[in-house]
Amino acid sequence: MQYKTSSKQWQTVISAFLFMAIFSLAAAAQASASDPRKILILGDSLSSGYGIDLDQGWVKKLESRIADQQCTDSVTGEDCVPGKWSVVNASISGETIGGGLRRLPRLLERTEPDVVVVELGGNDGLRGYPVQRMRLELEKLIELAKADGAHVLLVGMMIPPNYGPAYSEAFAAQYADLAKSLEVPLVPFLLDNVVFTEGYMQQDRIHPTVEAQPQILDNVWPELRDLLREVGEQESNS
């Protein structure tokens, strides 16, 4: 037995399919709009919380600060951050620039970050790696993140003159040079107002204490806040 379907019935079926398709697209768009943007922290022990509870580190405190300073209908201004943000901490103790460069492609694929904070180089400098090599790897790392559509914040570091003042000066200068040439914002020195403050460094004189974490966040926050605002405004206008 054969059944014939009238043109009116076909129109009903097609209309139903179109409605479901439009509904699905609208739901997906709404879900995408409500999903938080992501910040990927790519760092070493200074960001992974070496020697302290991870929940007491500056990266964890960053999550709270963003939540506290999120823009709302009643709170706007230069200090607030538009939109929702989540923080992914991919920092590893002992990490080098080369190690971060090797891990980054997978991290970009897995997390799809809107912002990448690059806090690397301290371990390279303490091991006396050639500055030119570090600079080239940092440049590749930043360009890779930018090519994936992420905005980058570069965090600078300084090291003691173990290998002579010329090496230490060249090491520190590479961050400002890269930030200028690649047009990315820069935190000049992650441990500013930390290394020489009593009670702010652990006994190894390399890693900060729990008490130093709010100051580290204060060092990062102005540049990061401005970058988050820039990203939020760009997406709002697109």
Q: How does this structure look, described?
A:
Helix 3 packs across helix 8, helix 4 runs parallel beside helix 6 (about 130-145) and helix 6 (about 130-145) packs parallel to helix 7 (about 165-180). By secondary structure, this protein is of the alpha/beta class. It has a five-stranded parallel beta sheet with strand order 2-1-3-4-5, sandwiched between helices. It has eight helices and five strands, in the order αβααβαβααβαβα. It folds into two domains: about 1-35; about 35-235, Rossmann fold (3-Layer(aba) Sandwich). Residues about 20-30 have low confidence and may be disordered. The protein is globular, with a radius of gyration of 23 Å. This is Arylesterase. It holds the Pfam family Lipase_GDSL_2.
CATH class of the largest domain: Alpha Beta
CATH homologous superfamily (4th level) name of the largest domain: SGNH hydrolase
CATH third-level topology of the largest domain: Rossmann fold
- The total of beta strands comes to 5
Strand order of the largest sheet: 2-1-3-4-5
Alpha plus pi helix count: 8
* Strand coverage percent: 5-15%
Query: How would a crystallographer describe the biggest sheet?
Result: 5 strands, parallel
SSE string = HEHHEHEHHEHEH
Question: What radius of gyration results from the CA coordinates?
Answer: 23 Å
Q: Oligomeric state of the chains? A: single chain
User: What is the residue-averaged pLDDT?
Assistant: 88
**Percentage of residues assigned to helices:** 40-55%
Distance between the termini: 56 Å
CATH architecture of the largest domain: 3-Layer(aba) Sandwich
Pfam families: Lipase_GDSL_2
Protein name: Arylesterase
Keywords: Signal
InterPro entries: Ester_Hydrolysis_Enzymes, SGNH_hydro, SGNH_hydro_sf
